[in-house]
Design brief:
Helix content: over 70%
Distance between the termini: 26 Å
Order of helices and strands: HHHHH
Strand content: under 5%
Radius of gyration: 21 Å
Number of helices: 5
Shape: elongated
């Protein structure tokens, strides 16, 4: 629930912003002036992009939470501890020692959503959010295909 509250608050704020953008778009289009209509159409495009991005992120969060619960039920959540710096960031050398085992698991079973999800968790723990999200997206895709 801890992770959900900030996501709910940010999503609610984004929805309010999108509603306001939609209102401004309608006002601009309703003026009948060519430049205002163009601005209104641009705002509609921005609104649609925002809705798409919000939907995609909510689906990602929901699916990754579901897979996380499944992994936890199976007792497969990585529990490797790495030393951290005073800033709270993990020490790079310790993280580098951890990755080969998880990468090897993915290479051994490239169609295993659990291997990909575990790799994503390790990437996230190392602070590599881009690779973590890529690995978790792959896990979601594989799990959906298996269903």
């Amino acid at each position: 629930m801890r992770a959900r509250l900030p996501a709910i608050l940010v999503s609610a704020f984004l929805v309010i912003c999108l509603i306001l953008v939609g209102q401004k778009a309608l006002v601009a289009i309703g003026t009948g002036q060519p430049i205002a209509i163009v601005i209104g159409i641009a705002l509609v495009v921005l609104l649609l992009a925002g809705v798409w991005a919000l939907w995609r992120e909510l689906r990602f969060g929901s699916a990754s939470s579901r897979l996380g619960r499944l992994l936890e039920e199976r007792g497969l959540v990585p529990e490797d501890e790495v030393p951290v710096r005073p800033s709270g960031r993990p020490e790079r050398a310790a993280v580098d020692e951890l990755f080969p085992a998880y990468r090897a698991a993915v290479e051994a079973e490239p169609e295993s959503w659990t291997a990909w999800f575990r790799l994503g968790i390790v990437y996230d723990g190392a602070g590599d959010r881009i690779r973590a999200r890529q690995a978790i997206r792959e896990a979601i895709r594989l799990e959906r295909a298996a269903r």
